[in-house]
Design goal:
Elements lengths: L5 E3 L2 H32 L16 H21 L2 E7 L8 E7 L9 E3 L2 E3 L1 H15 L4 E7 L3 E8 L2 H8 L13 H12 L8 E6 L10 H10 L3 E7 L5 E2 L7 E2 L4 H10 L4 E4 L2 H14 L10 E5 L1 H22 L1
Parallel strand pairs: 3-6, 3-8, 8-9, 9-12
Antiparallel strand pairs: 1-2, 2-13, 4-5, 6-7, 10-11
Helix pairs in contact: 1-2, 2-9, 3-4, 3-8, 5-6, 6-7
Length: 330
């Protein structure tokens, strides 16, 4: 198709109407012939030898008959909705499906990040940046999965960014358990992605895990995700050395295991980013957003000018003309 072409929006309806008109005309003609034959059998008539030279219909009746058929044919064409294509419409922007997997283990309460010259916890910073990320998106779909000892879908894939921001604000440390079961979280993401297999999705895992936890090997889960067409990207949160929580409990947290996270990203066909500060987390979100595109594989759209009005006018014009002439002759 190209600009200037004429296409039919509902050709099947037009063909159906045309077929109905043809069948109706055939049945009407058959009915008339049977009626005439019946009258002749009941009342025999002797025709004059020259009667066959006379026309069966006068010119006016013949014109009315053809005008009626033209009008019915025009209506059938109008039902098929002919339109003329105009200039091409701009294609919609490519869509993106991004699933954020957020670690809510107890170590995410460490305040080793700074935002606006103030110390903030890992989870507080992550929540703020995810809300900011969702605000900047337009037309994309975002899902959120939280994980600790278990994994839960907090927000299924949606274009409702207000819902994403609202639910992200509710995330708290330990809401899904104390540890970081990355493998279980990836299995949850694979399960959710299977609901819409036609679209490509990208997983972005934010975690400060230092070891493997949960019932599922995270590297094996990443391989399954890659086989399902999901790219697994890892963002390492927190310090690379041991951290002591600065309060009366003096809890000791092990550093994030960059080797483990790198192996998961490699098995999942993604990348590993080290989030040393807030800017690094923002860059990771932006890079995934740019890479996670579902290009619109659809034919170009064109402006459409309906033509059925002109078809109806042309089809009804002979009938209207005959009726007006007949009215004047009376």
């Amino acid at each position: 198709m190209s600009s200037g072409d004429v296409i039919w929006l509902t050709p099947l309806w037009g063909l159906t109407a045309l077929l109905a008109v043809v069948v109706f005309g055939r049945l009407l003609g058959l009915h008339r012939r049977l009626a005439i034959d019946g009258r002749l059998h009941r009342h025999p008539v002797v025709f004059h030898p020259l009667a066959g030279l006379l026309p069966l219909q006068n010119p006016r009746q013949r014109s009315q008959r053809w005008a009626a058929w033209v009008a019915l044919g025009g209506m059938c064409v109008a039902i098929a909705q002919p339109v003329r294509l105009g200039s091409a419409l701009p294609l919609p922007p490519p869509e993106r499906d991004i699933v954020l997997l957020l670690d809510t283990s107890v170590s995410m309460q460490i305040d080793d990040y700074r935002q606006d010259d103030q110390a903030v916890t890992r989870l507080d910073l992550l929540r703020a940046l995810v809300r900011q990320f969702a605000t900047a998106l337009n037309g994309e779909r975002v899902g959120v999965i939280v994980f600790g000892d278990m994994a839960h879908t907090l927000v299924p894939l949606t274009q409702d960014m207000a819902l994403v921001r609202q639910q992200t604000a509710r995330i708290s440390v330990g809401m899904a358990g104390r540890q970081s079961a990355i493998g279980d979280a990836l299995l949850r993401a694979i399960y959710e992605a299977a609901k819409d297999p036609q679209r490509e999705q990208t997983l972005l895992v934010f975690t400060d895990a230092d070891d493997q936890f949960g019932a599922t090997d995270p590297i094996a889960a990443a391989q399954l995700a890659a086989q399902a067409g999901l790219a697994v990207n890892m963002v390492a949160i927190g310090a690379a050395e041991q951290v002591v929580e600065q309060d009366s409990r003096q809890l000791l947290f092990h550093p994030v295991n960059l080797g483990l996270l790198g192996a998961i990203a490699k098995a999942g066909g993604g990348e590993l980013w080290r989030a040393e500060d807030a800017q690094a987390i923002e860059q990771a979100l932006d890079r995934v957003a740019l890479a996670s595109r579902n290009e619109a594989d659809r034919p170009p759209s064109y402006e459409q000018t309906p033509l059925y009005r002109w078809v109806l006018v042309i089809a009804l014009l002979p009938w209207i003309s005959i009726m007006l002439i007949g009215a004047r002759q009376r």
